[in-house]
Amino acid sequence: MNNWTGASGPQGDADPSPYDPELGSLPNGAQGDEHGDTVNKTGTTTIGITTDDGVVIATDMRASLGGRFVSNKDVQKVEQIHPTGALTLVGSVGGAQSFIRTLRSEVNLYESRRGETMPIEALATLAGNFARGGPFRAINPILGGVDSEGSHVYSIDPAGGVMADDYTVTGSGMQLAYGLLEQEYEEGLSLDEAQSVAARAIKSAVERDTGSGNGVFLAEVTEEGVDIQGHNDFDAVI
């Protein structure tokens, strides 16, 4: 039998429980973030909308230090991770960037081994598994993609839950954005109409949420690929 040494239990027991996480227990505090005031966080508002022709993902452009100071006004919070898929960056910037790099590597590995592109549903399941079991600081991304089954949007919670929907929102401005989306979303939107709705929802969040601001990044995901554009002026895309 292997002599495995894991983390001690929550009461500091000498003999570890086989059910304790191998990475050890999180320290007391905000989900293990002992540097909460100095870690770059996105705060943020991110949106994903499905259409018959593809997916639109929209995010704001602000990063902050501990939610108290704007550290960057031009953060691209949506990245391509799949030939026809993109993921938003929400939560700790470092954790989200590491999460994106890991998923990109897995997508490339899948394609090289099987000679085919990973289905978006499989990628969403993998992302949920990594969010639940990996050493990534609290993240709550949106995955949007297109494959042979159509257009897909998934929200992935920090505990690894994966939920598909026609549209979804994550981040600190989600309540404000949802208020507009509930009124404006309807079946049959074109990609251009979905971009306008998503940009207006981001603008609505930016008006009141201090963690969101400074413009909008829009990603258009179709069977042809992923196109990401940043806009400091909302009027150009609304």
Automatic annotation (TrEMBL):
GO terms for biological process: proteasomal protein catabolic process. It catalyses: Cleavage of peptide bonds with very broad specificity. Keywords: Autocatalytic cleavage, Cytoplasm, Hydrolase, Protease, Proteasome, Threonine protease, Zymogen. The active site is at 44 (nucleophile). It comes from the Archaea. Residues 1-45 are annotated as: Disordered. The formation of the proteasomal ATPase PAN-20S proteasome complex, via the docking of the C-termini of PAN into the intersubunit pockets in the alpha-rings, triggers opening of the gate for substrate entry. Interconversion between the open-gate and close-gate conformations leads to a dynamic regulation of the 20S proteasome proteolysis activity. Residues 1-43 form a propeptide. Pfam families: Proteasome (PF00227). PROSITE patterns: PROTEASOME_BETA_2. SUPFAM superfamilies: N-terminal nucleophile aminohydrolases (Ntn hydrolases) (SSF56235). GO terms for molecular function: threonine-type endopeptidase activity. Its EC number is 3.4.25.1. It is found in: Cytoplasm. GO terms for cellular component: cytoplasm; proteasome core complex, beta-subunit complex. InterPro entries: Ntn_hydrolases_N, Pept_T1A_Psome_bsu_arc, Pept_T1A_subB, Proteasome_sua/b, Proteasome_suB-type. PANTHER family: ATP-DEPENDENT PROTEASE SUBUNIT HSLV, METALLOPROTEASE TLDD. NCBIfam families: arc_protsome_B. Belongs to the peptidase T1B family. Component of the proteasome core, a large protease complex with broad specificity involved in protein degradation. The 20S proteasome core is composed of 14 alpha and 14 beta subunits that assemble into four stacked heptameric rings, resulting in a barrel-shaped structure. The two inner rings, each composed of seven catalytic beta subunits, are sandwiched by two outer rings, each composed of seven alpha subunits. The catalytic chamber with the active sites is on the inside of the barrel. Has a gated structure, the ends of the cylinder being occluded by the N-termini of the alpha-subunits. Is capped at one or both ends by the proteasome regulatory ATPase, PAN. This is Proteasome subunit beta. The lineage of its organism: Archaea, Methanobacteriati, Methanobacteriota, Stenosarchaea group, Halobacteria.
